[in-house]
Each structure stands twice: as structure tokens, then as C-alpha cells.
Amino acid sequence: MPEATSNVDGGDGIGDDPDGIGDDPGDDGSGNDSGGNDDGNGVRIDLISGARMEGLTGMEKIRLILDGVRDGNIVILEEGLSPDEESKLIEVTMTEINPDEFSGIEIETYPKSDAGDQTLLDRLMGRESAQKLTVIGPANQLQTLHKDETLISALVSRK
Amino acid sequence: MGLLTNLKDSISKVSDRLFADEEPKRIGIYGPPNAGKTTLANRIARDWTGDAVGPESHVPHETRRARRKEGVEIERNGRTVTIDIVDTPGVTTKVDYKEFLDHDMEKDDAVRRSREATEGVAEAMHWLREDVDGVIYVLDSTTDPFTQVNTMLIGIIESQDLPVLILANKTDLPESNIQRVANAFPQHETIPLSALEGDNMDEVYDKIAEYFG
Ligand SMILES: Nc1nc2c(ncn2[C@@H]2O[C@H](COP(=O)(O)OP(=O)(O)OP(=O)(O)O)[C@@H](O)[C@H]2O)c(=O)[nH]1
Ligand SMILES: [Mg+2]
């Protein structure tokens, strides 16, 4: 497990995440490329496309999400996670919760509208036909105000 | 995960289930914290084996280690169905030890409780992917069933093709709303009960035998 404090102090941009988001040396050149928003000026939002996620393994996806969230970012996934990945996300989140430091995640997706439109082969192969927009953030910064089948309304606060 | 690994996994899971008929089925009792999972597990265990599974409490995350009661023999219509029941910690995506401070707990105890809770939930999630043959999903029918945790867990259970029985618990309370639970998961059967009072347990046992026998 990565140390909980790995990214909040240095701002050196040398992370251990394989994704290249946030600490890509070429991404802005402004000097604030630590992947966090520890300058206190705002809350960063990463919108991650389905195409970007497609090339990653389940574990890489989970690291990408949790590294971002632990830096205080809001992560929005265009296509969400498979049930199996969601299950692993909960499991890994649990192992990283740490008193006074990380109290877990808030996650919201639209419910799958119809589980019945999947073929048996899809299910055997673990393929998910339903792709759903998913919002994930630190539990102490993201609060869901309202949720129904067509609208998710959330409040984001700075730490 | 690779396509092939996935396929292999699915096939071995399916065949496990086909050929493991002689073994008692492992039935996981899942659901959000405080829904009444342990109260139900204790009632089932007491009704059929004479002793209990674990302590119940109004403080969330009372169950922090999954507890198993093996070889519970349930008799229905002259037939005996043998199951292992596994009472799991309430599933959540966040645990803040400060919540426990409101329940009159010292910080040390609250921190320990939250650490145990997170370990227990991680373990329960792992088991759900690897080690469970069926699920009893317990909901507190006085609260909104339309939560992210419920949506995700039911999705996870469905994706593994596990048989699942949804129980709308705490029907003895005036705020209980069984229809709201049924509406939230229309693709599954919802059985109302009061695990505390023992109301409607006959139907619960009928359904357990039907689904997991
Ligand atoms: N009124 C009423 N209360 C119930 C019922 N079932 C459980 N309770 C109460 O709800 C509280 C939680 O019950 P538990 O069985 O400990 O709940 P749990 O789901 O195991 O909770 P965790 O282990 O914390 O996830 C306790 O105070 C129980 O007495 C019921 O049918 N009716
Ligand atoms: Mg319990």
C-alpha cells in the first residue's frame, strides 16, 4: 500500500502511479503538477474518458481513482466500473482508510436501468453492457444532495 | 482482467456450483450497517441449532468480523436444507471513527472499532467474489433503500449470478415501508419480516429452502 502522505507534501511530481494523469511532466509546466490541490485554491476535477480507462487493468483503474481521490480530487468516469471492479474498489478503499487522514470515498452512479439486456455470453465473459457515469470523491469532501434515476446532485467542499 | 482469465474464472465458478451439491451452501448475509443482519443470523441459528451467532447493537459496525454458523439444518415440508450462514459486517464505502465518538466511546476505542470495521468490510467484499453460494440481502425497511451501496452490491451479486433473497426488515416499526424496498429492486423478490420480533419467519424459511436448497 502506498503511504498515505506520499503526495501531499512534496509537490515534486514524482509519483508512482502508472497513469500519467496529474504528474505528467509535460502537462502544464506551471510547477503545480503534484496531482493534488494542496494549494487550497480549489477542488480539482478529473473527467476520465472511457477510452482512457479501456487500456487499463482493473487494478490500474482502482489505483487511478484512489490516488486522485486521496489527493482531494473529484474523479468522474465517463463509463464507470464493472461490478467486479466496484467490489474491488470498495475492498481497496477499506484497506486504505486511516484515522484523521482518509475516511473513505463517496461514490455515485446511476442505477443500471436494465440488467436484462445482457446476453449470457456477456455475463460469462464479465462484459458489462450498461455503462454509467460515475462520480467518486473523498467522503469528507463530496456529499450527495439528491439522487434519482436521472439526476445526481452533489456538494463539493474544500478540505 | 484478461478475457480468457475471466472466462476461465466464470466457468470454474459455474462448475464449482454444479458439482458442490453435497456441501452445505454458504449463504452470506449482506446489507448496510445496522439493517439487522446479526439479529436475523441469531434468530436463524437459535431456531435451528439452539445457539447464537454474535452480538447485536444499535451502534453501527457492531459486526466487524464475519461470523460463520455451519451446518444449519432447516426443515421445510419434510425436506432438510443444510446451509452455512455467514453474518458479515455492514458494507459501506466510508468509515469515520468520529461517528463512534457520538456513541460515547473513547477515541482509542473508536479508532480501533473503525479499523476493525474496515478490515471486516474488505474481507466481506472479498468473500462475496470468491466464497459465497447465495446471498440474503437485509435492508432496514424504515430507511431509503435507494442508496449507492445497495445499488452496487445488488449489481455485484447479480453479476456473479448468485441467488439472492431481499429481506425488508423491521416491519414492526411504524415507519416501515415494504413497498419502497420492493420498488427499489423490482427484479428480485422482497420478503418482509421483523427479525427482532420473529414476524413472518415461516415465509423467510420457505424462501431460504426454495432459493438455497
Ligand atoms: N425494531 C426492530 N429493530 C431491529 C430489528 N432487527 C434488528 N433490529 C435492531 O437494529 C439494530 C441493529 O441490529 P444488528 O442485528 O446489530 O444489525 P447489523 O445489520 O448486524 O449491523 P452491523 O453488524 O453493525 O452491520 C439493533 O438495535 C437491533 O435490535 C427488527 O426487526 N425490528
Ligand atoms: Mg451485525
Automatic annotation (TrEMBL), chain A:
Gly residues bias (residue ranges): 28-39
Source superkingdom: Archaea
Segments of skewed composition (Acidic residues): 14-27
Region annotated Disordered, chain positions: 1-43
Name of the protein described by the UniProt record: DUF2073 domain-containing protein
Organism: Halopenitus persicus
TrEMBL record, chain B:
Pfam families tied to this protein: MMR_HSR1 (PF01926)
Record GO biological process: tRNA methylation; tRNA wobble uridine modification
GO MF annotations, alphabetized: GTP binding
GO cellular component: cytoplasm
Domain of life: Archaea
Gene3D superfamilies referenced in this protein's UniProt entry, alphabetically: P-loop containing nucleotide triphosphate hydrolases
G domain location: 26-170
Name of the protein this chain belongs to: G domain-containing protein
Species: Halopenitus persicus
